[in-house]
Design brief:
Largest sheet: 8 strands, antiparallel
Radius of gyration: 21 Å
Distance between the termini: 30 Å
Catalytic activity: L-arginyl-[protein] + ATP = N(omega)-phospho-L-arginyl-[protein] + ADP + H(+)
Number of helices: 13
Keywords: Allosteric enzyme, ATP-binding, Kinase, Nucleotide-binding, Transferase
Protein name: Protein-arginine kinase
Family: Belongs to the ATP:guanido phosphotransferase family.
InterPro entries: Arg_Kinase (IPR023660), ATP-guanido_PTrfase (IPR000749), ATP-guanido_PTrfase_AS (IPR022415), ATP-guanido_PTrfase_cat (IPR022414), Gln_synth/guanido_kin_cat_dom (IPR014746)
Length: about 350
C-alpha cells in the first residue's frame, strides 16, 4: 500500500456500501481528539517535538499487532505535494488544517479508508472513523477500540474533573465530534432549510458545508455535528445527534413527498434537465456540477431514473473536485481548463454507465 493507492482510488470502498437511511444520510463520522501528556500541545510545540511524536507513532505501529481494521499505512504530510494533500482532503481522509497548517503532521489510514488517525493536527492525535448511512454508534464503537489501543501504549493528557484536555477549549471533555453528512434537496427546494438551521443551532448542534467549518454546502449536502463535548457521555451525545438527524430525515422525506404531489412534472423535468447538462456539457464549473449531481441523485432516490447507481454520483462528486481533476491530469490546471476537463470526465463516466 502507498500514497498513490489512496490518491488513485476515487471513492473509498466503504462509500459503495449501503447504510441505514443512505438515501438521505451519506455518511456518519466520529472524531476523537487526544493529546499526549508528555508533550506541549501542537499550538506550542517545536518542530523537533512534532517529529518525535510521529516517530513514536511509527514505532507503535511497527511493534504492535493491532489489526482490527487491517493494515494501517503511515503517510507524512511533509513528503506530499500540495496537490496530493488536496486530494486527501477531498476524500475526507485528512482535514484542511492538517493539509495546510501542519507541515510536521502525518496520518494513519486503513486500507478501506474507514479509519483515519491524524497526527499533529490541532491536537496530537485525532481518531476518525467513517461509516455509510446513519451509523454513529457503530462508528463510535470502532473509534473506542482504536482509542483503547492507543491509550494502552500512550499516556493521554487527562484531568479527572475536565476529561481529555485539548488545544481548543470547545473540545475539552470527551474530545468527541460526531457528525453526519446529509443530502437535503427537498428542504432546499421547498425553502424550509433557512428556518430549520437556526432551530438546530439552538439545540446545541451546528450545520456546516461539505468540508466542515467555513465550507459551502455544495450539491445540497450539509454536515450536522455536536457542539457540546462536556457533561454527557459519548454515547448520549451520539444519541442526541441521531434524534435531530432522524427529525431531519423525516422532514426531508415529507418535503420530497410534497414536491412529488404538487410539482411532480416540474421536479421530473428538473432532474432530466440536470442529467442532460451532465451528459452533454463541454464546460461545467464545480458548483453547477454539484447541483446537477444532486438533482440526478434525487431523481434516482425518487424513482425517476432507474438505470443508474447512486455510487456513480458519489464517485463523480469527488472525482470532479479541483484536486482530483488535477491529479488525473498529471499537474496543475487553470480554472477554465478544470471546467473543460470536469465536463469531459462526467460525460465519459456517464457514457460508461449507460453502456453496461
Amino acid at each position: 500500500m502507498s500514497l498513490e493507492r489512496f490518491l488513485n482510488q476515487t471513492i473509498s470502498s466503504w462509500m459503495s456500501e449501503e447504510g441505514p437511511d443512505s438515501d438521505i444520510v451519506l455518511s456518519s463520522r466520529i472524531r476523537l481528539a487526544r493529546n499526549i501528556k508528555t508533550y506541549k500541545f501542537p499550538t506550542l510545540f517545536t518542530h523537533e517535538e512534532a517529529k518525535k511524536i510521529i516517530f513514536e507513532m511509527e514505532e507503535l505501529l511497527r511493534n504492535s499487532n493491532f489489526s482490527r481494521f487491517g493494515h494501517l499505512e503511515l503517510l507524512k504530510i511533509d513528503e506530499m505535494q500540495p496537490l496530493q494533500k488536496r486530494v486527501l482532503v477531498e476524500k475526507h481522509l485528512i482535514s484542511p488544517h492538517l493539509a495546510e497548517d501542519s507541515p510536521h503532521g502525518a496520518v494513519l489510514l486503513s486500507e478501506n479508508e474507514k479509519v483515519s488517525i491524524m497526527i499533529n493536527e490541532e491536537d496530537h492525535i485525532r481518531i476518525q472513523c467513517l461509516y455509510p448511512g446513519l451509523q454513529l454508534l457503530e462508528a463510535l464503537a470502532a473509534a473506542n477500540v482504536i482509542d483503547d489501543w492507543l491509550e494502552s501504549h500512550i499516556q493521554y493528557a487527562y484531568d479527572e474533573n475536565h476529561g481529555y484536555l485539548t488545544s481548543c477549549p470547545t473540545n475539552v471533555g470527551t474530545g468527541l465530534r460526531a457528525s453526519v453528512m446529509m443530502h437535503l434537496p427537498g428542504l432546499i427546494l421547498t425553502q424550509q432549510i433557512n428556518r430549520i438551521i437556526p432551530a438546530i443551532n439552538q439545540l446545541g448542534f451546528v450545520v456546516r458545508g461539505i468540508y466542515g467549518e467555513g465550507s459551502e454546502a455544495l450539491g445540497n449536502i450539509f454536515q450536522i455535528s455536536n457542539q457540546i463535548t462536556l457533561g454527557k457521555s459519548e454515547e448520549d451525545m451520539c444519541r442526541d445527534l441521531m434524534g435531530v438527524v432522524s427529525q431531519l430525515i423525516s422532514q426531508e422525506r415529507s418535503a420530497r413527498d410534497a414536491l412529488q404531489k404538487t410539482s411532480n412534472i416540474q421536479l421530473e423535468d428538473r432532474v432530466f434537465r440536470s442529467l442532460g447538462i451532465l451528459t452533454n456539457s463541454r464546460i461545467i464549473e464545480s458548483k453547477e456540477a454539484a447541483q446537477c449531481l444532486s438533482d440526478v441523485r434525487l431523481g434516482i432516490d425518487m424513482g425517476y431514473i432507474t438505470n443508474m447507481s447512486k455510487t456513480i454520483l458519489t464517485e463523480l462528486m469527488i472525482l470532479t473536485q479541483p484536486g482530483f481533476l488535477q491529479q488525473y491530469a498529471g499537474g496543475p490546471l487553470r480554472p477554465h481548463e478544470r471546467d473543460i476537463r470536469r465536463a469531459a470526465l462526467i460525460r465519459e463516466r456517464l457514457k460508461m454507465e449507460s453502456e453496461k
